[in-house]
User: Which sequence fits this backbone?
């Protein structure tokens, strides 16, 4: 491979390939032999560095004879250096008649705007030539003139127009071969690079899979911890229930009995909710959670959630804000699922057991694509229906980040929320708003919901 | 950009990117038709049987600046089909500028967006930033029925709000092709000049170089007239290259 082609093996376009990469030498010698059979002229192809790549004939007898004479080899070497190195004329060619009286014609081989080698035709005799030049006799004093004249006369006689025509013809032939070679070289290089690229992508994917496996194991452990917490919660509440049942029903009429019954009801209801959440989570993970998308009015939805939260928790007030003017009034969604999501978030926002104020808000939002170039033309923003549940004065626990901080119920609720939102293409984000508290924002893309 | 001090040769790589069948190869074919024969080699197209580009198309353009430095512009297309993602990433490697060829049809809006995202991702994978890379957008196929394509007014409005120069084209007829190319060349040259001081180091005259390329492409008249057929795009907006290139 040429030095140029070694520049950057991973980028086939960065390399400037040489003749050796583009041509098959033995096939090239076949072409040159065919030219010799037609025109009887010796031809050599030199690469960009002047090294012989192919030739169609051994050294002519005249050259062999001169080479064997004292001083002859040096002059021949000078001649070959000139043929290899002399810069061609503007038309990419030059001709010269050497000290031996033989003529040569040299044409540059160009490809892709670059000279990548040269063709040397010769030695041959121009019409009318044949006398031994004085220069030859001076260069090799021991020369046998009769022998040299005989060998010189044996060289093919060619007119300059014929030499130029042969050069043109060979140029066109080489051009086709080089182009095909270049195409094949690039194709092969691209195949290799594509394989490398595929390997790199597979390595990346394998790494991601390993990471996912590690996360999965960690997630499994977290889930076990969460279930242990839930079991503990259920056990605690059952203990409470049992403790209250132990004294007997007769005490229910005693002073404070009403409060006991209320506490029992509350614990029982919470236990039922936990059990239901566990059941839903299991079904979601198994993929058989039923989804029924119907026409949904978000205002109606939030009102129902408000009633549910006010009724079920010790919540003194739930503020309701609706800013949905100008948009479609209804969407297709599973109302029960979204109600469950918002209720769970409401309970989480309150810390489940602690009373406090709560705010529910429905509004339109938008998801702007990244502000990179071309986005104005190609990145259409998405309109979102945002449902916000916020509780002042409390930092929210972020699912996925604060797993260790979650108590059993909150962890279960948020795990459930994320899976429930998946079925609507929605996302949950937690916005900390110090010092005013925090908010859970459920963002549902309208195109996923489908406006009615 | 590759610079060979020994041979005083500068090589610039420009890439035509876009969704499948948006007309990237047609752009190169049109350029090849109009360019002065002495300034180009063969257009190398590696097609599949259904005329879709398998690997890439390559159009070599060669120019000699007044200073004697040879400038070689290698113009590539990428294969648009989804399955050739890794090839696209390879071709975009080391790109100095990109023409994003978008399909004007309404039905192709999503494919345009997907291809644009793909470009962004492939540039980033090669350490290039879309914000820094010279980029020109071409909306092709303007000869299709008016009801099938986005209106000129719509594109004008988008171009006005955007940052990149936008050209309208019918690549199969050569309309808007040279303009898009020269628009990219000017922006790319400006960006490279800012980074490598080409004018100072090599005695280039940027304006006259772009004008000479325009002449070789048969632009006729002042090259700025062709470049200014763009919609939007801040004229001579400076960009700062970050990495790669």
Assistant:
């Amino acid at each position: 491979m040429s030095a140029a082609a070694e520049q950057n093996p991973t980028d086939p376009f960065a390399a400037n390939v040489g003749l050796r990469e583009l041509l098959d030498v033995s096939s090239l010698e076949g072409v040159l032999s065919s030219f010799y059979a037609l025109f009887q002229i010796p031809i050599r192809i030199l690469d960009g560095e002047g090294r012989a790549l192919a030739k169609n004939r051994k050294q002519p007898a005249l050259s062999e004879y001169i080479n064997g004479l004292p001083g002859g080899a040096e002059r021949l070497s000078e001649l070959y250096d000139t043929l290899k190195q002399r810069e061609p004329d503007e038309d990419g060619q030059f001709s010269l008649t050497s000290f031996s009286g033989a003529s040569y014609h040299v044409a540059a081989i160009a490809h892709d705007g670059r000279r990548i080698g040269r063709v040397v035709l010769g030695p041959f005799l121009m019409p009318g030539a044949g006398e031994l030049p004085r220069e030859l006799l001076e260069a090799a004093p021991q020369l046998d003139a009769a022998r040299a004249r005989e060998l010189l006369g044996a060289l093919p006689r060619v007119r300059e127009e014929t030499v130029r025509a042969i050069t043109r013809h060979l140029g066109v032939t080489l051009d086709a071969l080089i182009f095909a070679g270049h195409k094949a070289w690039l194709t092969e290089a691209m195949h290799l690079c594509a394989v490398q690229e595929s390997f790199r992508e597979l390595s990346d994917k394998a790494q991601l899979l390993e990471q996912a496996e590690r996360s999965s194991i960690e997630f499994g452990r977290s889930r076990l911890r969460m279930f242990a917490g839930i079991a503990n919660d259920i056990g605690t509440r059952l203990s409470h229930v049992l403790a209250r049942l132990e004294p007997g029903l007769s005490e229910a009429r005693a002073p404070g009995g009403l409060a006991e019954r209320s506490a029992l009801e509350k614990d029982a209801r919470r236990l039922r909710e936990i059990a239901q959440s566990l059941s839903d989570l299991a079904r979601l993970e198994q993929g058989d959670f039923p989804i029924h998308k119907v026409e949904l009015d978000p205002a109606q939805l939030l009102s129902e959630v408000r009633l549910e939260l006010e009724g079920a928790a010790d919540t003194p007030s739930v503020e309701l804000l609706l800013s949905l003017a100008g948009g479609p009034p209804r969407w297709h969604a599973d109302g029960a699922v979204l109600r469950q999501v918002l209720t769970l978030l409401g309970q989480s926002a309150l810390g489940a057991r602690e009373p406090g104020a709560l705010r529910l808000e429905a509004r339109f939002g938008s998801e702007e694509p990244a502000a990179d170039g071309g986005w104005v033309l190609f990145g259409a923003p998405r309109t979102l229906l945002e449902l916000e549940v916020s509780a002042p004065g409390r930092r929210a626990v972020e699912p996925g980040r604060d797993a260790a901080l979650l108590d059993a119920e909150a962890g279960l609720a948020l795990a459930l929320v994320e899976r429930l939102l998946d079925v609507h293409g929605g996302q949950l984000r937690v916005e900390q708003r110090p010092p005013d508290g925090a908010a859970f924002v459920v963002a549902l893309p309208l195109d996923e919901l489908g406006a009615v | 950009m590759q610079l060979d001090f020994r041979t005083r040769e500068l090589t610039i790589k420009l890439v035509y990117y876009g969704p499948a069948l948006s007309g990237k190869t047609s752009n190169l074919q049109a350029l090849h038709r109009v360019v002065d024969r002495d300034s180009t080699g063969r257009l190398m197209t590696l097609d599949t049987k259904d005329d879709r580009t398998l690997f890439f198309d390559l159009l070599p353009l060669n120019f000699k600046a007044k200073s004697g430095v040879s400038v070689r512009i290698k113009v590539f297309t990428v294969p648009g089909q989804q399955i050739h993602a890794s090839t696209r990433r390879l071709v975009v490697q080391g790109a100095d500028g990109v023409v994003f060829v978008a399909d004007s049809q309404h039905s192709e809006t999503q494919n345009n967006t997907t291809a644009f995202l793909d470009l962004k991702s492939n540039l980033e994978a090669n350490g290039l930033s879309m914000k820094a890379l010279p980029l020109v957008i071409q909306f092709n196929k303007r000869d299709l029925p008016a009801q099938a394509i986005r209106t000129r007014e719509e594109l004008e409005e988008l171009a006005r709000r955007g940052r990149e120069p936008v050209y309208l084209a019918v690549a199969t007829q050569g309309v808007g092709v040279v303009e898009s190319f020269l628009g990219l060349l000017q922006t790319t040259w400006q960006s490279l000049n800012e980074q490598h001081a080409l004018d100072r180091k090599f005695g280039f005259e940027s304006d006259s170089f772009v004008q000479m390329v325009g002449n070789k492409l048969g632009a006729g008249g002042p090259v700025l007239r062709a470049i200014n057929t763009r919609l939007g795009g801040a004229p001579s907006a400076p960009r700062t290259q970050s990495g790669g290139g």
About this structure: The first strand of chain A starts at residue 43 and ends at 47. The two ends of chain A are 67 Å apart (CA to CA).
